[in-house]
């Protein structure tokens, strides 16, 4: 039984709604020896969970195990590798988990308390630039008791810690395989998740087979899955139409979504599903660069950008304008940027610049990744350039880079203004603010604020009832809007296109919008 002294409340629930008929579970669903083939543009950057805080988590969720997990349609964690977990004090600072009996990794090595301790301490010690160590920073020390009990002592009260344990940042690895002081360079991984890797071709595909040694909460409904990684959304959609891909996840362009939706008779064997999305896109201003250092410049950009035109002209309304770093549907959301800036207004932007002594055109270079979020990203930045230059206040240069080079530039602080996407680690307002602020954050741009990072966020983490943290989050969003170092643009909807013989689509996305491949199966009869 999963216990927690002060249960989390108010977490968002992900609900999948079929846009076309026939997407639900049908009588006659069953397992098949034929591998289900998934297409996605979310290519792993590494296979070691200590080295990735990005779309690699899509794979990690399926090959590694965590102590807890997010069950279907719920943002409240439940046991996975753990038999039970819970805070043992009244201030959410000591968290205890007891493992299930007889756990092993896919190679047969034991998964015991020491392996769990090793996994967390390793990620914290390696502290990879692109890794998730920041998510684990609340851990002060870890102790074990016997072979199955792990006790986390936190530096300060943190009611979000059970949520963190359900993310791939808390993936469990085999101490005999994963070096303590560096990332694993081999593709011969050893996890304890629902699948094991049969074959991996970097940037192209991964073949997964059921892990017969898995002992967790997932009910695995297929024997094998192949994930194909595409750089080109058009190629991915074409493969789905031809039948060489069974399901596409992440990367469909708005044009492709509209095509599948409106031209149903052209694709009778393909069903389109819309998933409530908590993905966001935003601009980051690095004040270490002259271009982005002046608050007046950042505020003027925030005053000019027309989000409604952006989602209309580029995303064909498959996204929604976003006026906060915390998206709608997440407890604690307020439209802080709309309250601060209102509708786009060039006159106000010009006045803002003039008050700061800026009279000439401001030169800005906007950087973006060309292959991470789908082909529409280039169109998005072209639209941002059009809007900013149409104001007469800015002269904009665009620079696109492939993900790995782009990510390197971000972590090294090379870009004054750049675009990022964020898929939540867990469904809580904290996860849309905390990762981007503080001395060391996910963006490589230190952002310390006495009230924001010194008072509001620590205060919010004391609330085990997450709804009660809303006041602190509202104030935090107001500070972000006034400062405008982060500029939210839009909140996405997630679309899954699947061939009609694939069952389980409505259950395959968890509350952090990561795909659970084990929920998919082929329908054997109708």
UniProtKB/TrEMBL annotation:
It is found in: Cell envelope. Residues 77-441 form the Solute-binding protein family domain. Keywords: Signal, Transport. The keyword Signal applies. It comes from the Bacteria. Pfam families: SBP_bac_5. Its main location: other. InterPro entries: Peptide/Ni-bd, SBP_5, SBP_5_dom. Belongs to the bacterial solute-binding protein 5 family. This is ABC transporter substrate-binding protein. It comes from Streptomyces macrosporus.
């Amino acid at each position: 039984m999963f216990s927690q002294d002060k249960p989390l409340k108010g977490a968002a629930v992900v609900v999948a709604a079929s846009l076309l008929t026939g997407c639900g579970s049908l009588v006659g669903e069953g397992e098949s020896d034929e591998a289900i083939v998934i297409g996605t543009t979310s290519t792993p950057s590494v296979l070691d969970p200590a080295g990735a805080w990005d779309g690699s988590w899509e794979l990690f969720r399926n090959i590694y195990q965590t102590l807890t997990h997010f069950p279907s349609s719920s943002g409240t964690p439940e046991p996975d590798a753990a038999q039970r977990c819970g805070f043992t004090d009244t201030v959410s600072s000591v968290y205890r988990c007891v493992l299930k009996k007889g756990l092993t990794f896919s190679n047969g090595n034991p998964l015991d308390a020491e392996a769990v301790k090793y996994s967390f301490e390793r990620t914290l010690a390696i502290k990879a630039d692109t890794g998730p160590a920041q998510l684990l920073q609340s851990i002060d020390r870890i102790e074990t008791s016997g072979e199955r009990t792990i006790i986390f002592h936190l530096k300060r009260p943190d009611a979000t810690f059970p949520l963190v344990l359900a993310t791939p940042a808390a993936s469990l690895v085999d101490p005999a395989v994963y070096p303590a002081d560096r990332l694993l360079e081999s593709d011969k991984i050893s996890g304890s998740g629902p699948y094991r890797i049969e074959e991996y071709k970097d940037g192209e595909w991964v073949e997964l087979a059921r892990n017969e040694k898995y002992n967790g909460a997932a009910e695995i409904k297929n024997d094998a899955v192949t994930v194909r990684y595409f750089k080109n959304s058009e190629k991915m959609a074409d493969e789905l139409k031809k039948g060489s891909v069974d399901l596409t996840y992440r990367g469909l362009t708005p044009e492709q979504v509209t095509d599948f939706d409106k031209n149903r008779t052209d694709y009778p064997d393909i069903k389109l599903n819309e998933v409530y999305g908590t993905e966001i896109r935003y601009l980051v201003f690095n004040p270490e660069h002259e271009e982005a250092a002046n608050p007046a410049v950042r505020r003027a950009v925030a005053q000019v950008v027309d989000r409604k035109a952006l989602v209309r002209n580029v995303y064909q309304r498959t996204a929604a304008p976003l006026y906060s770093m915390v998206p709608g549907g997440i407890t604690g959301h307020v439209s802080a940027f709309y309250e601060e800036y209102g509708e786009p207004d060039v006159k106000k932007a010009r006045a803002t610049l003039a008050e700061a002594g800026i009279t000439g055109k401001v030169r800005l270079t906007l950087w973006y990744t060309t292959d991470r979020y789908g082909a529409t990203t280039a169109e998005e930045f072209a639209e941002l350039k059009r809007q900013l230059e149409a104001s007469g206040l800015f002269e904009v240069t665009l620079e696109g880079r492939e993900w790995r080079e782009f990510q390197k530039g971000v972590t090294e602080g090379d870009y004054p203004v750049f675009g990022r996407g964020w898929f939540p680690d867990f469904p809580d307002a904290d996860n849309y603010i905390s990762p981007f602020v503080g001395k060391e954050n996910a963006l490589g741009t230190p952002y310390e604020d006495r009230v924001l990072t010194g008072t509001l966020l620590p205060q919010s983490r004391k609330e085990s009832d997450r709804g009660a943290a809303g006041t602190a989050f509202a104030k935090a969003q107001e500070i972000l809007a006034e400062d405008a170092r982060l500029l939210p643009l839009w909140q996405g909807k997630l679309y899954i296109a699947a061939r009609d013989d694939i069952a389980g689509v409505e259950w395959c996305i968890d509350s952090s919008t990561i795909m659970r491949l084990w929920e998919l199966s082929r329908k054997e009869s109708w």
